[in-house]
Amino acid sequence: MSVFATLVEHLADLLQPLFGASAAAAAIVLFTAVVRLLVHPLSRAAARGQKARAALQPRIAELRRKHARDPEKLQRAVLDLHAEEKVSPLSGLLPSLCQMPAFLLLYHLFSSTSIGGETNALLGHRLLAAPLGDRWADALGADGPFGPAGLVYLGLFAVVAAVATFNFRRAKRVPLPETGTGQDVPGVGTITKVMPFLSFFTLVTVAVVPLAAALYVITSTTWSAVERAVLYR
After folding, report:
1. Contact 49, 233 (CB under 8 A)
2. SS3 at position 228
């Protein structure tokens, strides 16, 4: 925690000439971009995996016809097929799972009043009028939804809603290759149905976590939207 806090402070100092009092917020956005760059090879691998799973659909359809009356046998046959072709049905989750430590680190860093026995100086940083350690409820309690801090959150909600709408429309227009295989691979069908709506759940996340963690979520979600549009053309 102390090392990461020092890193954020140094990044904020470097960015201060450009972003002024919002330099720490800019540092978090930059940190998020670095994390996403590091995870990008996994995202590319996940895209290749989805294309490979799409290529297996004719063979899965044949297995479905062959084992139509035996769901358990069908499930085993599909899993064996994935193993034979070295295709993981859940590889698309790896990029998100690998980002969780970074998100949790930011969450705890900006939820702690002290770090290493000293006052957490990062809590004094802001994004415009909104402290990075506060939540939407704090903004509402201070000046209401249209106060200085409340307007910052309204702007962030607008960004999240725009990205979520983009993801939703794209998911409906270009369904994921796993669609229709939920009965073959446990959990994939549910995940596929829920995926188009997950970005809207980000609105709830942004509202309840510290603003610093919300910035990570918003930056990462926007990155994912652009990344998927490129990788899944």
Report:
1. no
2. helix
Q: Which amino acid is at 80?
A: D
Tell the residue number behind the tokens 């995202």, with chain if given: 43
d(CA 12, CA 134): 18
Judge residue 123's burial from the number of C-beta atoms within 10 Å of its C-beta, 0-12 exposed, 13-18 middle, 19 or more buried: buried
pLDDT in tens, 112-147: 888 877 888 888 899 999 999 999 999 999 889 999
With vertex at residue 182, the alpha carbon angle to CA 180 and CA 186, rounded to the nearest 5 degrees, is: 160
Q: Which residue has the tokens 């659909």?
A: 57
The verdict on pTM exceeding 0.85 is no
List of residues 6+ apart from 232 with CB closer than 8 A: 47, 50, 174
Which amino acid, 222? T
Amino acid at 48: R
